[in-house]
Amino acid sequence: MSDRLEAFEAYRRKMNERIADVDHLGIKRFFNLDTKAYEDGALDEKTKELLGLVASMVLRCNDCIDYHIIQCVDAGWTDEELYDAFNVALVVGGSIVIPHLRHAVESLDIYRGRERS
Amino acid sequence: MSDRLEAFEAYRRKMNERIADVDHLGIKRFFNLDTKAYEDGALDEKTKELLGLVASMVLRCNDCIDYHIIQCVDAGWTDEELYDAFNVALVVGGSIVIPHLRHAVESLDIYRGRERS
Amino acid sequence: MSDRLEAFEAYRRKMNERIADVDHLGIKRFFNLDTKAYEDGALDEKTKELLGLVASMVLRCNDCIDYHIIQCVDAGWTDEELYDAFNVALVVGGSIVIPHLRHAVESLDIYRGRERS
Amino acid sequence: MSDRLEAFEAYRRKMNERIADVDHLGIKRFFNLDTKAYEDGALDEKTKELLGLVASMVLRCNDCIDYHIIQCVDAGWTDEELYDAFNVALVVGGSIVIPHLRHAVESLDIYRGRERS
Amino acid sequence: MSDRLEAFEAYRRKMNERIADVDHLGIKRFFNLDTKAYEDGALDEKTKELLGLVASMVLRCNDCIDYHIIQCVDAGWTDEELYDAFNVALVVGGSIVIPHLRHAVESLDIYRGRERS
Amino acid sequence: MSDRLEAFEAYRRKMNERIADVDHLGIKRFFNLDTKAYEDGALDEKTKELLGLVASMVLRCNDCIDYHIIQCVDAGWTDEELYDAFNVALVVGGSIVIPHLRHAVESLDIYRGRERS
Fold first, then answer.
1. Residue A31, Cβ neighbours under 10 Å: how many?
2. Confidence at B116, pLDDT banded by 50, 70, 90
3. Taking the CA atoms of chain C, what radius of gyration do you get in angstroms?
4. Which chain A residues have a beta carbon less than 8 Å from that of C24?
5. Is the pLDDT of residue B1 over 80?
6. Concatenated DSSP letters of E55-82
7. What is the CA radius of gyration of chain E?
8. In this predicted model, what pLDDT tens digit does every residue of A11-30 receive, in sequence order?
9. Which residues neighbour E90 within 8 Å (Cβ) at sequence distance 6 or greater?
């Protein structure tokens, strides 16, 4: 059975393929730039994914949060480190971030559960 | 002669003292929580300041950017690392972040200039 | 049968308990500060809940709207007063608030319906 | 069978009628002003709907995007022109707009599919 | 000598007259709707001005904050009540609101100073 | 004597050169993508600049507004057409856009005055 994180990943994959089909050079380049922004550079990928996660939380975008949660776990951040990052996002962005904190914690639990099974 | 970063720091200090005088327990506690959010924990202070900087950039707050630029430089981030963080903020937040990127680069230059003099 | 407001309340309760389990002192304190911000002070709780509702509407957060609708009804605000608050939020925040106005009016109807049954 | 765009349209119609019943003069006038803002004036309706679409994308409101997608298609904008507008929204608003770009492309596909059937 | 609040008020007055000269019916009606949103209705003007102030703070608009501070003081809100409203805005909107809290406290001090002289 | 629009243009030019010096490939590509997004494509440049202007107004960025006002005037939009676009931005974004409408109208007046002299 598919969890909500898998449903998001499937939808994301399907629509990204559809957008690639649209074949708009500007959009294609933007997606490329977005991918490259998180690759190792002066900062390593692991740090950049955490930056992406906190940016997604203060901008309150659940899909972006889910994407970066997965990336952050894969990059090796521990739960305690992620909670500390959630706390920075919460203090910067305020209580309006709380529904997205709930979502982030649940996504993290789902993804960790998948690792364990 | 005072630069615009010093003017900001003086204003910030003056008004934070004024706000402390207001003596509202909730506000006092919020300021305290804000300070503590960047202290060493599961994540170290250096990483958290970078998170604060990127959050400030995507939320497009120049005063917050200035504050975190100073903290990030003091914490030991190099220019190349900071430019890489600026790039993540730019890609996440889009061209609407560009005026704040200009501000951030100028603030960084001013603060580095102060170090050198 | 459970309505969407009940589903939200159950999810909110479940995830708040999960977040309490996370046991991060900063997050715990933020939740505490958030609760205290709406308690009687120089302004009474009733007024503060209305402030929270309008803030949630202009920031366009449906979960926050649902929470404050419930609190506002429990605090004794009438429908006419709430519509007047919705109108302030609509004028300040613009037509982008309209989907959240639809949500707010529906949540209010659901919650009033629950009172009547 | 109803698609998600039809479900949105039905909900929008139902709640707009409910809001009309609320009978708040300010809210009524706002809805009227909102309708009139897209009527032919110095700019024609077609151009204004495209402005509404891009504004909805950078402000990241899926319901507003769906509404303006429908209006833009009915006003005669081609897919290639709409993709070009999506690209402006993406560059201005950044990668945080991507989930809404996915939504917009899917909504456009659904609506075009309806035209064809 | 003019303070920054007087400078804002003069600029606001001058530009509002200029905008009235533009003679665009939609814009004119929006300004009218905006004025009416704060008049006595189911909620009284005093309460509505406080709603406008908190909405302005969480949306982080200094000009709007200045306008509503003046209106709130004229409507009879005490400093303690305004600080309590500032606190709600701070908790909802997070530390990104702090620069606007500084601005709000300073504006309030300037306006109270004017009353006393 | 230099007006505030000239001061902005000079600062923008200076800092864009400084940012080009930074020599970060991702940032460089983003600036390139941003430029290309407004070039003739399925939509012409003139239409895209108007989209950029409305996006800048609802996102409430004065520097971005100034840039696009200049581009829109150069692209041949009349004042009446620009006021109509301002109105769409005002209705979508609400009264929080008003300070930026004041700024936009003043910038337009300054730029038109420059044309006449």
1. 17
2. confident
3. 15
4. 83-84, 86-87
5. no
6. HHHHTT-HHHHHHHHHHHHHHT--HHHH
7. 15
8. 999 999 999 999 999 999 99
9. A94, B26, B27, B30, E57, E97, E98, E101
Q: Is the pLDDT of residue C108 over 80?
A: yes
**Tokens 């337009």 identify what position?**
F108
What is the rounded end-to-end Cα distance, in angstroms, of chain A? Answer: 13
- What stretch of H or E contains E43? none
Q: Are B47 and B35 in contact (CB under 8 A)?
A: no
DSSP state string for B20-49: HHH--HHHHHHHHHHHHTTSSSSS-HHHHH
Whether the CB-CB separation of A84 and B42 falls below 8 Å is answered with yes
Q: What is the pLDDT of residues D68-96, one digit of tens each?
A: 999 999 999 999 999 999 999 999 999 99
Give D-chain residues touching F27 at CB under 8 angstroms. none
A59 SS3 class: coil
All partners of chain B with 3 or more CB pairs under 8 angstroms: A, C, D, E, F
What would the pLDDT profile of F72-95 be if each residue is shown by its tens digit? 999 999 999 999 999 999 999 999
pLDDT at position B70: 98
For an interface test with B, give the residue of C24, C27, C33 to mutate (most B CBs within 10 A).
Answer: C33
Q: What mean pLDDT is predicted for residues E60-81?
A: 98
Q: How far apart are CA B26 and CA B24, in angstroms?
A: 6
Tokens of E85: 């409203």
CB A77 within 8 A of CB A43: no
**What Cα–Cα distance (Å) separates residue A95 from each residue in A67, C27, D50, D113?**
22, 11, 34, 41
- The three-class DSSP label of residue E84 is helix
The CA-based angle E40-E41-E45, given to 5 degrees, is 30
> How high is the pLDDT of residue B117?
72
- pLDDT one-digit tens code per residue, D13-65: 999 999 999 989 999 999 999 999 999 999 999 999 999 999 999 999 999 99
Q: Cβ contacts of residue C61 below 8 Å, gap of 6+? A: A60, A96, A99, C100
Out of E30, E37, E41, name the one closest to residue D33 (CB): E30
Q: How far is CA B17 from CA B14, B28, B69, B81, E105, in A?
A: 5, 11, 22, 33, 11
Taking only the tens place, the pLDDT of each residue in C58-89 is 999 999 999 999 999 999 999 999 999 999 99
Contact F83, E24 (CB under 8 A): yes
Looking at chain D from residue 64 to 103, which residues have their Cβ under 8 Å from any Cβ of chain F? Answer: 64, 78, 80-81, 83-85, 87-89, 91-93
**B28, D49, E51, E79, F101 from B24: Cα distances, Å:** 6, 47, 20, 11, 35
3-class secondary structure for C42-103?
CCCHHHHHHHHHHHHHHCCCHHHHHHHHHHHHHHCCCHHHHHHHHHHHHHHHCHHHHHHHHH
A19 within 8 A of A31, measured Cβ to Cβ: yes
The pLDDT of residue A117 is 73
**CB–CB of C24 and A95 under 8 A?**
no
